[in-house]
Structures are given as structure tokens and as C-alpha cells.
Write a structure and sequence with these properties.
single chain; 462 residues; alpha+beta; Nucleotidyltransferase, domain 5; 6-stranded mixed β-sheet; 5-stranded mixed β-sheet; 16 helices
């Protein structure tokens, strides 16, 4: 009997929280180690190392088309390894942003992954969750059968039936990979739980979650009296967002700072009786769009560029652009733009080293240049923040705090512009990449942790 109780207790502690994000994902477990049960009782959590030294992982899967036919399923790479396989040109199919297809009819359809194989989109989602569960179990040292999953306020805008179907599909995928008990919490509530744990009074908080694909805003009510409530949907007073975020910023940086070195924004040589005309921009837009880069390496696109040689007033710019296509440097340029954005967010300025493209080539880039490049995107994001309040029927002066989370909130000009419209609100920065996962972990403690188990045991005893 004593052994049965011990195993039951151990199983009860095996739970996790998963932030299954559009761009990146993270997993949280109850805190362990020296703090022991006391830390767990206080709601402390730890993040799972999903890749060596990293606690977040791109929501990406690469299916290899060269998998031997004798193997039942195609070999897969996850996260950064999946992206690397795609960038390196391996034969196969890269899947990203799987969360965005939840609630659509596409979920039950199959897609070709090469090598005579196909896979259902639902199984793509389930396979990624299975991988995350395996990593969580490796960290926990036990089977993880209970989970809290984050969900956006709306998977699908203005369509309650499809929104409900999206959550049901995600729950079905979670159960398919071995989670016996599945709960959900709204991502903005999860993000705000960190602030709520320190709040001495009730507050209105505007949560700004600006990641890789979307900029989402939620106006939520938090406070001591609300801590531990299992259902927080009525605490979300308004929600709005735009599909503008980190990947768009990378594109803007590349176009503004890097691609002018290859002719973008320049003029073609003037002809007699005609003014100089700007270079066509299509090839540059494709080069700055991550998922279109590989299309530029086809023989047809290379032939197209060779025909454009006489359009360049500066022969060096043509040679640079040709080198990108011949040497397949497109993703290296995109990575340089992303690194520049991150460096500016952290230090305010950087030097973009492009020596891999041409010896000695590089350009300076600073916060002011970033602000100019991102002006249109920032304006749309700020507009989404104020639209959230309009939908909630709340004045900006009533907001007590702004809670910033998501990788793109490291950009000072963006955060400053949002905050400028809420002069009375305290500015709070969460963990940019893990606030939601940690908040989901806190909520998991409410459902599954020591206090919840004690209450359940007391109910049984009563």
C-alpha cells in the first residue's frame, strides 16, 4: 500500500505546461532541486532545455524525403535543426507556423513531403507535441500525463465555431501523443500571472505580446482576489492584433540596410530622352522573404537576373546580387538582418559584417536607422494597441500597467512608441521568450500542484 501511494504521488507531480507558439515554443515543469516541494507550493517553475543551452525552440519540423522506404515514418528534424536542414538544401518538406492551421479544414488534409510519402497536417501538430512531451519527460524523469496548453484569445477571429474547433483539435493532438489530462489557459492571462503574483491590488493590464509572426494585445484584469481562479476568461476585457512582428522587422532591416548594396532602391542607367527609372524590386522582396529565398536559386530566376545585367548603373551591385543566387547566400543575408535587429535591441547599435558575401563588406546600423526602417510597422502595431482599448470600451488613462513579452519587445523604439500612448501606466518587461510558458507553469501548479492535491485529498477524506 505504501508503494502504491508513493507511485501515485510521483505520477501526480508529473505535469507540464506547453507554450505551443506560432513561431517558437517552450515547456515548463514544476521547480525541483534544493527548493523542493516548498518552491513548487509557491508556484515556482523551471523551463525545459529544448535544444542545447536553449529553452525555446522554433515551431518547425523538417520531413526528410530521403528516408529509406523500409521505415514506416519519414525521418524528422525539429526546431533549429529543421530550419538548418531546409537552408542547407536537403530534400524534404519544412513545416512552420503549424498553429495557424488549427480550426481550418486544412488540418485533416494531407500534404506531400517527398519520397512518395504524405502526412496529415493534424499529425504534423501531434508529432511536434510528441517531441515536446519527450523532452519534458527526459527532464522530469517520469511520464508526463497532465498538461496545460496555452491558447490565444481567438484562434480564429469572429467565428466561435471554428475557434472552438481549433481548441478541440489541439486537445485531440495532445491526447493522441499521451497526455491523459489536458487543460487550457489564455496566453495573455499566462503572461500577466507573473505581474499578478506581485500585485497588491486589482489592476488593468495591457499585455503586449509581440513575437515573430503577430503582435497581439489583450486588456486583462488581475489582482490578489483573482489568483488561483481556474477560469479567467471574464478577466480578458479586450483583444486585438495584427500580423506584423519580428519576421517583418527582419525583412525591413534587410531591405533598408543590406540589399541597397546589391542595387535595391537604386536607379537604372538613364536613356536618351528618358528619366532614370528605379530598379524593379520583385527580386529583392523575394530575397528578403524567408520562405521565398529558395525559389531564387532555380535556373529560371538565375536566367532572369542575367538578363538584368545592363539595368545596373553600378556593376559591383550586379555582381553582388549574382553572387547571392549563385552561391546561395540568401538565408545568410536574412540571418545577418535578424542578428542586426537583435544587436540593436540589446546595445542600440551594431556593424553588420557581410564579409561572407564580399571581403571587407559591411554597414553600420543603429536604433535610429531601425526606427526609420520600421516606421510603418510600428505605426500599425501602436494602432492595434489602441484598438484593443476601443473594443474594450476603456480609456488609455485607466490602464495601470503595460506588460511587454515576446522577442520583438526588445526593440526600444517600438516599446517607447506603444508606451507613449499610456502615460499613467507602469511599464513592465517580462521574460521576452518565456513569460507565457512560465505563466502557464504557474497555472499548472494551481491545477496539479501541492495545494490542489491537498484539497483533493481533503475532499476525499471528508
Amino acid at each position: 500500500m505504501r508503494r502504491t501511494m508513493a507511485s501515485t504521488t510521483k505520477a501526480a507531480r508529473a505535469f507540464a505546461a506547453i507554450d505551443f507558439g506560432t513561431s517558437n515554443s517552450a515547456v515548463a515543469l514544476p521547480a525541483a532541486g534544493a527548493a523542493g516541494a516548498g518552491a513548487a507550493a509557491a508556484g515556482a517553475v523551471r523551463l525545459v532545455e529544448l535544444e542545447p543551452g536553449l529553452f525555446t525552440m522554433p515551431t518547425a519540423v523538417f520531413y526528410r524525403s530521403d528516408t529509406p522506404p523500409a521505415e514506416r515514418e519519414a525521418q524528422r528534424h525539429y526546431g533549429r535543426a529543421a530550419i538548418a536542414a531546409y537552408v542547407d538544401g536537403h530534400d524534404g518538406r519544412l513545416m512552420r507556423s503549424m498553429k495557424s492551421i488549427l480550426g481550418s479544414t486544412l488540418l485533416e488534409q494531407s500534404t506531400d513531403i517527398g519520397g512518395g510519402r504524405s502526412v496529415r497536417y493534424h499529425d504534423v501538430v501531434a508529432g511536434y507535441l510528441r517531441h515536446l512531451r519527450g523532452l519534458a519527460e527526459g527532464e522530469a524523469g517520469a511520464a508526463v500525463e497532465r498538461v496545460v496548453l496555452g491558447r490565444p484569445v481567438f484562434f480564429v477571429d469572429d467565428d466561435p465555431a471554428r475557434d472552438a474547433a481549433a481548441q478541440a483539435a489541439l486537445e485531440r493532438a495532445a491526447r493522441q501523443v499521451g497526455f491523459a489530462e489536458v487543460h487550457f489557459q489564455y496566453e495573455p492571462i499566462a503572461a500577466a500571472l507573473d505581474l499578478e503574483s506581485r500585485a497588491a491590488r486589482e489592476q488593468l493590464v495591457l499585455v503586449a505580446d509581440i513575437g515573430g509572426g503577430t503582435s497581439d494585445f489583450s486588456l486583462v484584469r488581475i489582482g490578489p482576489a483573482r489568483r488561483g481562479r481556474p477560469d479567467r476568461r471574464n478577466d480578458i476585457l479586450g483583444n486585438h492584433g495584427v500580423h506584423v512582428a519580428g519576421t517583418d522587422f527582419d525583412r525591413r532591416v534587410e531591405l533598408a540596410a543590406i540589399l541597397p548594396l546589391a542595387g535595391y532602391g537604386g536607379n537604372r542607367p538613364a536613356r536618351a530622352g528618358e528619366p532614370a527609372r528605379e530598379m524593379p524590386s520583385g527580386i529583392y522582396f523575394d530575397l528578403a522573404t524567408w520562405h521565398l529565398i529558395n525559389t531564387l536559386y532555380s535556373p529560371a530566376r538565375l536566367a532572369e537576373l542575367r538578363q538584368m545585367k545592363t539595368w545596373f548603373a553600378d556593376a559591383r551591385q550586379y555582381q553582388r546580387l549574382l553572387a547571392v543566387l549563385v552561391r546561395r547566400l540568401g538565408h545568410s543575408l536574412a540571418a545577418a538582418a535578424e542578428a542586426a535587429k537583435i544587436a540593436v535591441a540589446e546595445t542600440g547599435r551594431t556593424h553588420i559584417d557581410l564579409g561572407f558575401w564580399e571581403p571587407g563588406l559591411g554597414v553600420p546600423f543603429d536604433e535610429a536607422a531601425a526606427a526609420r526602417a520600421l516606421e510603418a510597422d510600428i505605426e500599425r502595431i501602436v494602432g492595434a494597441a489602441h484598438e484593443t482599448l476601443r473594443l474594450a470600451g476603456v480609456a488609455p488613462e485607466a490602464v495601470d500597467a503595460l506588460y511587454f513579452t515576446g522577442g520583438s519587445t526588445g526593440l526600444g523604439p517600438l516599446v517607447d512608441r506603444i508606451a507613449a500612448g499610456f502615460s499613467r501606466a507602469e511599464r513592465v518587461r517580462g521574460e521576452r521568450f518565456s513569460s507565457v510558458a512560465q505563466g502557464l507553469g504557474r497555472y499548472a501548479q494551481v491545477l496539479f500542484g501541492p495545494a490542489a492535491r491537498a484539497a483533493a485529498q481533503a475532499s476525499v477524506a471528508g
